[in-house]
Amino acid sequence: MIQDMRLIELKGVCKNFGDTQVLHDVDLYIRKCEFITLLGPSGCGKTTLLRIIGGFEMPSSGEVLFEGKDMTGIPPYKRRINTVFQKYALFNHLNVYDNIAFGLNLKTPEQLGVQTKKEKKEEIARRVNRMLKLVKMEGYEKRSTNALSGGQQQRIAIARALVNEPEVLLLDEPLGALDLKLRKEMQLELKAMQQQLGITFIYVTHDQEEALTMSDTIAVMNGGRIQQIGDPKGIYDEPKNAFVADFIGESNIVDGVMLQDDLVKFRDTEFQCVDEGFDTNEPVDVVIRPEDIMIVGEDVGMLSGTVESVIFKGVHYEMMIRDEIGGEGQGMLWKVHSTTMQPVGTRVGMTIVPYNIHIMHKAKTADAEPVSETGDKEA
Amino acid sequence: MKRSWYASPYALWMVLFTVVPLLFVCYYAFTDAAGAFTTANFTKIAQPMYLLVLWDSLRLAVYCTALCLLIGYPTAYFLASRDFSRAQSLVVLILVPMWMNFLLRTYAMMTLLEDNGVLNTLLRSIGLPGFKLIGTEGAVLLGMVYNYLPFMVLPIYTVLKKMDYSVIEAAEDLGCSPIRVVSRVVLPMSIPGVVSGITMVFMPAVTTFSISRLMSSGMVYLVGDMIEDYFISMNNRNVGSSISLVMLVLIILSIGFLRKVDPDNQGGGLW
After folding, report:
1. Chain A hits for B180, Cβ within 8 Å
2. ipTM of this predicted complex?
3. Environment class of residue B2 by beta-carbon count within 10 Å: exposed (0-12), middle (13-18) or buried (19+)?
4. CATH assignment of B45-261, given 3.60.21.10, 1.10.1060.10, 3.30.450.20, 1.10.3720.10?
5. Per-residue pLDDT reduced to its tens digit, B214-261
6. Does pTM surpass 0.80?
7. Residue of A nearest to B175 (CA)
């Protein structure tokens, strides 16, 4: 990785609120024009991390570099960063046009590349109109922000931030309040805007699907630590630990023991896998995606079980199948996705191909130990 | 039963104690002692002596409102600030004086400020010359501000407290220095509270009575005192009513003017 591609770099960032430490030694770098998502459950520290980058919070220790220069102590209004807030935070004493023009009005004519006040006014009008077009809100200039729907308010909030042509745009769960259909549309639009404008987007969400759809890079966070950084496919296919596996997509997570390279034992059964480099008899977490379990005839699968419930999910059926390890009704429930439905009460066999069995080191403490190689990203 | 019926007790109250008395005021204002129609009451109060009293009342009310705003806004801003945690108890402290009768409060104020009152005694005891307060216009203004200040602080505090903090962060984010955050966002967004505060201070201030008489030892004579005198000491309810009517029109005009400042009428302007 070339050092000068790094636009923002966080080094050993910690943050305490009183006695609670919300960020533990976070290392992260963000490249120019990258769409990076901070993904994690509520309370994982992702919003705090975003606010530290935006300058709204100061790190308790560690440093934040912008193009190699330390930004600690520089207030938000002096950073070339703009933010789209969770609740839009529009100025309801101003109309749509003046909301978008707010940041530009604060600048001197020289900063906008013109000489006179009149030219400044024209330049602002030009930029605001371009933004209105970008967010598809032409014709709404004179409207009061109170009269807009949630989706429209969000577009104005995005336009208000982007019109300042920031290096970096921070987005704090901006689509959280929108309905599903609108959210999906806005996801694609945001992604398109980001590619069109070539601006770095740092996006915070707890919605893994959103993260997978939009991001170039995802940083999965939990308990104030970055658990894994990588591209969406890498994170989905090769989660580094059970937390990431569970958070990104649905998973069956089973306790297992690694017998030797490429051979793991769980549910009293030995399975071929493709993972190497574990200690002999090391206890591990075994992660299997619901869509990777194949249903076969009874007694020909690797495990047998009985279907306990079936839910139709649109494209597939979600079945809960209880295996027979440990006696009648004592087995564990497996979540299985399949396009063919097995009625409740049917006894079936389950088969998993070696490639789809993911083996993970056990977390050393209860609250998910960080994965050490946090800086390791794919190019 | 239709929902609007639930308001009927209030409607009855309004008719009995607001509309009917108002009609009486109008009736007395346009009649003489014998009950015949006349406009003499109004020509009488158009004389310079009466207009001077009216002018003094308006002037003092404007001073009082301005002072309340000047003291009240920063107070409300401080109370509503995010990192101030004892705001609740301080707001109660601001409210406590309102639980007492205003005459009681004014008498207390007099005791403090009298020529031989607490303040002057204290000043003299440390060798400073005492100064005359009671009997001046300044004392009246002090009494008015003291009585009406909570009506300015509370509406502004409520508006500022309700303001979403992320709006302030958004302003910072878009390039506002801390001073500009206040001038471009906090102040304009708190206008409804300011309008409401001005309304609630100006209306009682312009019709102030007793406070003026007590604090100035009778030197400052305001419209409120004049109306009181006409009704009670002089037993001339006709002139008293005409003065009341003129005041009412003046108040309606000035409050209506506030609507121009606050077009959404969030602050409780009259129309």
Report:
1. 106
2. 0.76
3. exposed
4. 1.10.3720.10
5. 888 888 889 999 999 999 888 888 999 999 999 999 888 887 877 776
6. no
7. A77
